[in-house]
Amino acid sequence: MFVEYIFIILGCCVLSSDCHYKTICEGSSCYFLYENKTSFLTWDQSHRACNTEGLEMLGIESRQIQTVIEGLVNNLPRNTARQIWIGGRRSTDDKWRYLNGTQFNKQYTRNNESAQYCLYVKLCKNGNPEYHADNCDEKNSNSRLLCQFDQSKTDRCNSSDSHFGDKCYRKTTHDGQKQTE
Fold first, then answer.
1. Disordered: where is this region (predicted)?
2. Which distant-in-sequence residues (6+ apart) come within 8 Å of 158 by Cβ?
3. For a surface tag, which of 1, 34, 51, 56 has the fewest beta carbons within 10 Å of its beta carbon?
């Protein structure tokens, strides 16, 4: 069975050149650029995809994280999906928040998007990322999402994960089910 998603926990891609994501670790946090090769995802589907793997959608809560993510996005091939969901949305009190409840810095949103509720990063033609909002139910060209994982909050590998040195690897199929080997 062809594996369409691969998450690597606590490490970087060493399995093959067919990996459909990029990973950057900074301190105890790892950031995953996750791609669905078969269909576009809504914001909620993206949120579930991260949670299924024990990850969280990324909240860009500091300039340092923003710089790391811009590096990930800037290294994407120019012919790839241009919009990437991140873990922020407008809450019921009409404030922008990340999923952990931290209030979002409004400098990333645009006035003409005031009626939209979920955040994404858009890769512009000049290579610079811009932060936008969109309808959470829209699939448009969002086939990628950003997830994060805090290495300090885990008990190493799950019993069903593969091991390589001190790294943990988990494979999933396109429907989110674990692949058996």
1. 158-181
2. 168, 170
3. 1
Q: Which residue has the tokens 């448009």?
A: 140
- Site of tokens 């994960």: 161
What does the pLDDT profile of the chain (181 residues) look like in tens digits?
333 333 333 233 332 233 345 677 777 788 877 777 667 888 888 898 888 878 888 887 777 777 777 777 767 666 665 678 889 888 878 788 888 888 876 555 454 555 668 888 877 766 667 778 888 887 766 567 888 887 766 555 555 565 444 556 665 554 444 444 3
Determine contact, residues 30/149, Cβ cutoff 8 Å. Answer: yes
Amino acid present at 86: I
Query: How far, in Å, CA of 102 to CA of 17, rounded?
Result: 37
Q: What is the DSSP letter of 111?
A: G
Burial 84-103 (b: 16+ CB within 10 A, else e): bbbbbbbeeeeebbbbeeee
Domains, in order of start, for the chain: 28-154 (3.10.100.10)
**One-letter identity of residue 68:** V
What is the helix (H) or strand (E) element at residue 121, kind and residue range?
Answer: strand 118-123
